[in-house]
Amino acid sequence: MSRTTFRLNDGRSIPAVGLGTWQSKPNEVRDAVEFALQHGYRHIDTALNYGNEREVGEGIRASGVPRDDIWVTTKLDNPWHHRVVEGFARSLSDLDIGYIDLYLMHFPCSTDPEDSTKHLPDWDYVKTWQEMQKLLDAGKVGSIGVSNFQIRHLEKLLADPSCKVVPAVNQIELHPSNPSPKLLDFCKSKGIHCTAYSCLGGTIGSPINNSGPLLRDPAILEVATAKGRTPQQVVLMWGVQRGTSIIPKSISPSRIAQNFELDGWTLTPEEMKKISGVQTRFKVVGDGWMPIKVFFDDDE
Ligand SMILES: NC(=O)c1ccc[n+]([C@@H]2O[C@H](COP(=O)([O-])OP(=O)(O)OC[C@H]3O[C@@H](n4cnc5c(N)ncnc54)[C@H](OP(=O)(O)O)[C@@H]3O)[C@@H](O)[C@H]2O)c1
Q: Where does the NADP-dependent oxidoreductase domain start and stop, copy by copy (predicted)?
């Protein structure tokens, strides 16, 4: 499983397991990225918004793994929607890795850079996508996609005559307490691969962390015990077996290694069903900090 890749609608292949880096501090993330790559990871997820692209790039270069063997995803931040070329150039320059494999629109929300409480007037994500499509011609990005898009966002985007490129990926929150089957099915029907973020249920110790209850859920503990695996490993395996790529975040070498131990075992259909049957519901990422509503609770 750690070597599994998923084929995207543009013919490129994304590694199933990557390292997340949100809330990994610059002084921690360099070592985490270097360690992960030296221990087999070939996929790193970052974003301009995380403020750590420079150190992520340092970790990539320090790893000694050839650049062409690594998949790097980064994202356009909300205040940069009307400045796609500049936002992309900044990420590319900070990462300093020659090119970006996957560039995502972080949220379907263009924020006024002068006032984060305001939506940018006369600029929505359809316009942003028009600009992102142009990036493909410049040859510094392999694939383009979106993140945090709900069904209604995708329907509007795909129906617009300016949409010539179907997003290769929609990176969304997915874990057993936010399984989003309707959104997942919709993406599949349009040929859009989904990457699962907060795939362990979010960051421990963060005010918005909720992973404790998920990873203590009796169904998950039961499957973990039966498999002789950790609750985290069975939740990650559930994500890959659903056909989503996963990007668990860690800065701890032992946990980075453990999250990659997904070879030589699988979950049975009954075990998959048991995990899918988890009843608790929560989301790690909300939209209260953005000037417009993005999540509509309509993806179940
Ligand atoms: N597109 C978006 O809007 C968006 C939003 C959220 C996240 N993301 C991406 O998705 C990535 C993952 O999501 P996330 O960071 O929200 O959370 P996550 O990966 O679900 O969980 C991370 C938390 O789990 C801990 N952890 C990791 N492996 C563990 C293990 N084996 N045992 C016990 N604890 C473990 C980490 O702590 P330690 O670091 O101390 O190990 C951290 O506190 C992000 O880093 C980011 O790259 C994208």
A: 17-277
